[in-house]
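Handoff note, outgoing to incoming analyst
You'll be picking up this chain. Sequence as last confirmed:
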Amino acid sequence: MIDQLLAPPTQISHTESLRLSQLAPKWLRSQAPSSLPYPLSLLTTSESAEQWQANENLLVACLRTGDDETAYICLEQLSQRFGPDNERVQALRGLYEEATAADDKALLNVLKGYDELLEEKPANIPVLKRKVALLRGLGKVADATKALTELLDSSPIDAEAWAELAELYFLQGAHAQAVFCLEEVLLITPNAWNIHARLGELLFISANAAEDAGSKLKLLADAQRSFCRSIELCDDYLRGYYGLKLTSQRLLEALSQTSNKPQKAQSSDATVGDLPPPSVASVEKLRELSTKKLSEIVRRSMGGGKGWDGYDQAELIAVKELLNRDTQSVQR
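Most recent structure output, in case you need it:
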């Protein structure tokens, strides 16, 4: 059970969360803390960082499945071990209060509690992140954006905060700012293939909204490069190949519309940027590559192939529909 509990909560399915929460009472009894105060408790018990990480993840799993009683036990154990003034414990207590809040009024009281904690210590990063999440959940996106920018003033190399700020800007239609935030994430974590793919998605969306052909071509070319980097870092990343296929198809259309321009104008146009637009042949090869890989992922994953599990079923269905549309267009 400990191996499953060490996985990040966001990577645990609802079914697995339910199973873990059902086993929680037995696991908690086996991890009963010493009656002695810390640090004397270390003399009679063997503990590790993994044990407390598992306890925290179990708390989240129980909240997801509505087992508030067991979640509270996990919270109290963490509080007894690290103290109620520990920043992470304060954030987890806030998470518990959010999950058990009866209505928006109760959530506003939780928000007020966050503000009081931040008045005492403005650089309390875990609590500040909970405040941002709660503001977003309440629909106060502008306030969440402001709070997150204040967090980044205190911690400018927090990749998670930059990624969240990108999503907040995207919700408000500020695509250029969202792209900038993801570029900041990549400065901190250059090998994060999911962020490269997300950057490609935002660039692709921005290209759809672009009015002039030059800007559209540049954005599509940048999006294709981002997706290529994503699959370079993770060979079987479905979202990377899906984005690469869509972008390549759209890029072929854009290149065909600008094919009548002189070659010199295409390579030196300021709107295209320092790099020239890709050739039709290279884009066509990337489209074929992505189509072939997506077909393989769908075939092997839906066929139960060994080592091809773990893909989201909704994403697999979306890929299958995309491939079917291609097949229908060829038949016509």
